[in-house]
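Sharing in case it's useful to others searching the archive later.

Someone asked me privately for the predicted structure of Large ribosomal subunit protein uL1, so I'm posting the question and my answer publicly. Question first, with the sequence:
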Amino acid sequence: MTKKYSRRYQELAKKIETRAYEPLEAMTLLRETATAKFAESAEVHVRLGIDPKYTDQQLRTTVALPKGTGQTIRVAVIARGEKVAEATAAGADLAGSEELIAEIQGGMMDFDLLIATPDMMPQIARLGRVLGPRGLMPSPKAGTVATDLGAAIAEFKAGKLEYRADKSGIVHILFGKAAFDPEDLVTNLKAFQESIDRNRPAGAKGRYWRSMYVSATMGPSIEVDINSLRDMKVEA
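And my answer, the predicted structure tokens:
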């Protein structure tokens, strides 16, 4: 079935040439194509030369975006005793112990990120069916199992994101708002690129980077020249 695009989208797509753009040029074009009636996000989609069905080719980690995400993140924390008060003082939107686990099990999902202390993970295990499909299950790899709750909450509130490669070896994340200055979008995109390179799976063979495309939420895709981005020196 052929996907139908709006007239607005078709007109914007005419601005995009079939080539890989220099990073700053791509970010400028992304901003120009963000013409929807709401504040669009900036998205990046990267195809990597990995096969995540093999454990040594899986990619799941975090990146701290220097210029933030432009989004307000609702953080919930599951801890015990004094750690609950510590989480609240650090800015957690929700914090609790077994009672919070029960609320989540009952369908309460008023948060975007869940952080837990290590000692609470055995109790949280029963939430796997609820949290797993939403990508919200706390994980040490994602930085969402932590003992220093203040630092973890502050990092995620400031622009730290978890990302992972899907079963096709593609990584999708939001790396800011389309209204950001193009230079700030490049800074965030560079941090993301460096994170992917730094966390290259041990089993990845051959050409690691296959393609990178960016777009506004409702805008057309723009290919980014990966080699140009990797060669850039960006000051945060």
